[in-house]
Design goal:
With about 350 residues, this protein is mainly alpha-helical. Helices cover about 55% and strands about 5% of the residues. The longest helix has about 50 residues. The protein starts with a strand and ends with a helix.
């Protein structure tokens, strides 16, 4: 039996690992690539629709969204997901990009759901202040974001973080910083044997699902293909693409969460299955993590948004049709009076 796949030793979080005094990391670069791709796809749509907005309008809109994303992602990542409570006691550390010893670490600990909410708030505030059509712009953002998001998850993979649950699947991977398990436990020995890993110590590092790559593929590339080629060309009401993205992302992420290891200090928030199930191994579909709860809210929210906006669009169309019919009647009556 072949041994489990090892995380590539040639991959380093730092772009220049031989120059530690320059803290340039692939993770940060991947986010810049993500923003750049989303910007280009958005700009393409503005040109495609002949909307005529200036480069300053687009840049300002994106800047507001990026600022909101960073604030929201950091607030959620520190205040909601960190169990130590240090950020509640010392809130100035939330946006302090230096670790122990004054070494620059950046903002490690960013929540997608918080970033999503922050970006929406940023976009909305900018659109209202500049009197832009928020829903029109939001629809164009919605079909552009997933492809950029792909690179954010690739950044997580390069960092060898956010690994998935333990697995003996042929493509499961051993991440260097993942938690070790006692070789004395039967389930650990069983998976090690299936994965072809020798039990040569008291603690063993087992292979895991590369959930970052699952997310990059399904939440990124595949979701983008659906939105870009199936949703974008449709002549639907404003807000439809936004709702489709929210519900689509929530649905895909909900199922990927079954392969992703929950935060150890949070574990499963809802335990409808085995209440003693380990967070390290998939055992039941009835235990739900914090991520799945938030994704379920996204699914409901996205579908609800589509329903509300669709109803509003139909009502508006009905009122316009009634007004047009009334106008036609008035014009017809005027013509009859002129003939008399």
């Amino acid at each position: 039996m072949l041994a489990a796949v090892q995380f590539p030793t040639w991959i380093h979080p730092e772009i220049l690992p031989f120059l530690p005094q320059f803290p340039l990391r692939w993770y940060g670069l991947m986010y810049l690539v993500a923003f750049g791709i989303t910007y280009l796809l958005f700009k393409y749509q503005v040109k495609e629709r002949g909307l005529g907005y200036s480069a300053d309008d687009i840049s300002g809109f994106f800047l507001a969204g990026i600022v909101g994303l960073i604030i929201g992602a950091r607030l959620f990542g520190t205040l909601l997901y960190d169990p130590s409570g240090i950020y509640w006691r010392k809130p100035w550390l939330i946006f302090w990009p230096f670790g122990e010893g004054g070494r620059f670490t950046g903002f490690m600990g960013m929540s997608f759901h918080g970033g999503f909410i922050g970006a929406v708030v940023g976009f909305f505030i900018y659109a209202k202040r500049t009197r832009l059509d928020f829903l029109e712009w939001a629809d164009m953002i919605a079909v552009s974001v997933p492809l950029g998001y792909t690179f954010g998850r690739l950044g997580n993979f390069i960092n060898a973080e956010l690994w998935g649950k333990v697995s003996a699947a042929p493509w499961a991977m051993v991440f260097p910083r993942a938690d070790r398990f006692p070789a004395s436990q039967a389930w650990v020995r069983d998976i090690a044997q299936k994965a072809g890993i020798a039990l040569d110590g008291a603690m063993i590092n087992l292979p895991r699902h590369p959930s970052q790559l699952y997310e990059a593929l399904f939440e990124g590339v595949i979701l983008w293909l659906v939105l870009w080629f199936a949703v974008r060309p449709r002549k639907t009401f404003k807000g439809f693409a936004v709702g489709a993205y929210i519900a689509g992302y929530g649905l895909v992420r909900f199922f990927i969460e079954y392969f992703r290891e929950p935060d150890a200090d949070l574990g499963y928030i809802i335990r409808l299955g085995d209440p003693s199930a380990s967070i390290h191994v998939y055992s039941t579909p009835l235990n739900f993590s914090m991520g799945q709860i938030l994704c379920a809210l996204m699914i409901v929210g996205g579908l609800g948004f589509i329903a509300v906006m669709g109803r509003s669009s139909r009502r508006r169309a009905s009122l316009l049709a009634a007004a047009e019919a009334e106008r036609s009647k008035i014009q017809s009556a005027k013509k009859k009076l002129r003939k008399r």
